[in-house]
Amino acid sequence: MKISRRALLRSAAIGAAGVAAPSLITRYGWSQTGPIKLGMVEPMSGPNRYFGESRTDAVRLVVERVNAAGGLLGREAAFVAVDSEMKADVAARRARELLLGEKVDFITGFSSPVNMAVAREANAQKKLFVSSTTLPTDMNGSGFMSTTFTCSPNAEVYANGLVALVRNSPAKKVYVLAQDVGSGVVMGKHFARQFAALKRPDQELVGEEYHPTFRISDFGPYITKIIASGADWVVTPNFGPDLLLPLQQGSQLGWNVRVATTYLNDPVVLKELGAAAIGHWASAINLITIPSAKNKEWIKIWRDRYPNGQNLSDIPDSSTGMAVNAYSWMFDVVKRAGSLELDKLIKTWEGDKYSALWGDVEMRACDHLIQTGIGKAQIVAAADIPADMRFFEFPFIGPATLTPREEISIAPGATSNSRCTA
What we know:
By secondary structure, this protein is of the alpha/beta class. The chain has two domains: 5-153 and 292-371, Response regulator (Rossmann fold, 3-Layer(aba) Sandwich); 156-284 and 374-408, Response regulator (Rossmann fold). The protein has helices at 12-20, 49-68, 88-101, 112-124, 155-167, 182-198, 220-229, 241-252, 267-273, 293-305, 318-337, 342-349, 405-408, 418-421, and strands at 36-42, 77-83, 106-109, 128-131, 148-150, 173-179, 204-211, 233-236, 258-261, 281-284, 353-355, 360-363, 370-371, 374-380, 396-397, 401-403. The strands form three sheets. Strands 6, 7, 8, 9, 10, 14, 15 and 16 form an eight-stranded mixed beta sheet that branches. Strands 2-1-3-4-5 form a five-stranded parallel beta sheet, with helices on both faces. It has a three-stranded antiparallel beta sheet with strand order 11-12-13, with no helix packed on it. A hairpin with a 6-residue loop joins strand 12 and strand 13 (370-371). Helix 2 (49-68) runs parallel beside helix 11 (318-337) and helix 8 (241-252) runs parallel beside helix 9 (267-273). It is globular and about 65 Å long.
């Protein structure tokens, strides 16, 4: 099966950069068997397009650095990106084209329905699916596939991070607002359960609501319920327009709440919100203001490569920084495995320890889920962000700290994965 031109990126400019750029770096003695390729099934159209654009920019930089250091196994590294349209059926078809037509060696995706579809196709072809973003808990639990490696906490671990943040905050009355599919439901419900068990005596959950995903333009009815509940904090795993609109409209309607979310370190959302974002909280594994040496090093590397920023979201933070970490780790595993054989790759990565941008992490052997702390930071005015970590002149995340993984990890015996509970 040959991948069609129509299946490639909707944007010709991005497509040219994503496919052609890695092959520009060549070295004498590289194998003629072709590059080691990562296939990316990304949102390259519609309102979430900027996620795909920034993630491909991240992978482009990783690939360039791998090739500049001599490549892998005597071959160059490369990537091919296609548009998922954020639809599971489209993503499955594009994944098959990448796996069977482009003969990619690894594959990834973005968003829960897309990741589930792409992971199944990868497993069928005995190729590794490597996720740098949150997966539904079942993908590391009862629905575990040995070909899936998750370089981001799953929905339940992220929910635990939000519980740790909120229970140690001044919050008294908490409301959950989440998307009605995939990780949104898992994260919202797990937060509600854990918060009920771990909250302080003076805290309570006053509401829990799930809304259609990316189909709501007027969040007024939801905001009215939140205000009526007396909530002073709102917890949401929403992202993109489903994060921007409630925050924007809530501010306009006069709600008086703090919002805690896993995706508020999103410059596209924060630029639109402006001063209305100040005081809310982001909880995520990769926050650009975590003062680790490796994080600071990558800020410099990124600025040197993208001095003017190709896109607003082109900073090594959020899903972009997570992509840098995941695929740098993946290529490092290939190098140490010394092979693309599936069994050798799996054996090398299981239990592996790695120095991530934000700190030390480990790939748990039983469920292939990263074990990591989660960062937290409040949105502050640009002037309050250290100059060496400041990218924008609008409010963004302030200095960040890391919640230790011991406080948020799911114990192996508490998972639904029989490999972990045995």
